[in-house]
Amino acid sequence: MNHDLSFHVDFRHRVRFTQDAFHPDNDALASVCQDDSPRRLIAFIDSGVHDAHPGLGDRLANYLAARSRRGEKVPELKMVEVACGGEDAKNSIDVCEQVLAATDRFGIDRKSFVLAIGGGAMLDAVGFGAALAHRGVRLIRMPTTTLAMDDAAMGVKNGINKFGKKNFVGTFTVPWAVVCDEDFLATLTDQQFLCGFSEAVKIGCLKDAAFLTQIEQAAEKIVARDYRAAMPIISRTAHMHLEHITSGGDPFESHDARPLDFGHWAAHKLESMSTFALAHGDAVAIGIALDCEYAVRAKMFSRADCDRVLACLRALRLPTWHPLLMQSDQLLRGLEEFREHLGGQLSVTLLRSIGQSTEAHEMDHAMIAASASALAP
Length: 377
Known about the structure:
With 377 residues, the chain is of the alpha/beta class. It folds into two domains: 14-187, Rossmann fold; 197-375, Dehydroquinate synthase-like - alpha domain (Dehydroquinate synthase-like, alpha domain). The protein has 15 helices and ten strands. The strands form three sheets. The chain has a six-stranded parallel sheet, with helices on both faces. A two-stranded antiparallel sheet has the order 6-7. The protein has a two-stranded antiparallel sheet with strand order 9-10. Helix 12 crosses helix 15.
C-alpha cells in the first residue's frame, strides 16, 4: 500500500531596511520580535563588527530595555557574545557550537530568538547553529556588509565549509526576520563595501536589463560611497533576491537549476583554492566575467553584451581576473563539486542576453580555459 501526499507549508520572510536600528524610537527590530508570551533573546556579534562598533551590545540591551519600559512585549536579553567573523566563522564548527551551547544554557525555546549581527559568513554559521537547536529556533539576521544586505541575509540557507568545499554542510531554514541597518556600512573598507555589488550586477544580468543600466549609471557615485546612489541599488538587489526565493517555485533548491548562482560555480572553487583569502563578492565578479566570456565562445551571448558586463564590473572596481584561473585542472574540479551540490545533473546558468539566461548541462573544458586566458590583463 502506497501513500503519496503533497503538502505545502506557509512561510513569511520579514525584511526591514532602516538606519540607527538601536535608537529607542526605531520600530524595525522591535516589530519583528514582539510576542504575546515571554521570550528570550541571545545575540552574537561578528568580532570585526564588535571592534568597529564599540558598545554595540550595550546599545542592544538599552534598546530592548527602553521598549520594554514602554510596555512592549519584546524578548528578554540573556547574553551578548562576540563570535569569530569573516570566512573563518565558516571554516570550523566553533561558532555553531557556541550557538548550541548558549541555546541550552539560557533556556532558549523554539519561539525565542537568536540574533546574529555580522557579515554573510558569520550569519551563515550562527544560522546553522540556530537551525540545529531544537530543530530550529527563531533567527533574526542583522547583516552588516553590502554583500550580506543585498544577498546572503536574504537567502534561506545556512552552513559552514568542510573538506575544502564551500557550504558543504548546512540547512535550508527561512529566517524569522532580517533587519538591515545602513549605518553599519559606514565602517567597511572600500573593498568590503564594493564587493557586494557583484551580486547586484549578477541579478541585473539575469533578470532586469534596466536595472543593470541603473547600476552602470550609478557606478561612479557608488565607488565614491554616495549612499543616496548606493542604497537604492542594495535595496533593489535584496528585493529581487527575495522575490526569486519566495516566488520562484524552488526556495529549497529541489530541482537542478540554480539561476541565482550565476557565476558561482567558479567563484566557490576560487574561494576554496585561495583558502578563502579571496572574498566571496570578488570571487563572484570573477565568476561572472568567466561565464560571460564562455557564453561568447559558446555563441549564445554577444561580444558587445559581454564587454558591457565586464565594463560594469570594472567601473565598480571589482576584479574580473585572478591568477588562480590559470590553474585549470583544479578550477575545473569546481564543476563536479557544483554538480554534487546540485544533487544530480550539472546546470550552469549562462546568459543569452542582458536579462535573459539559459541552463547549460555540459561545459567545454578547453573553452573554459580559453575564457580564463582571455580575461588575463
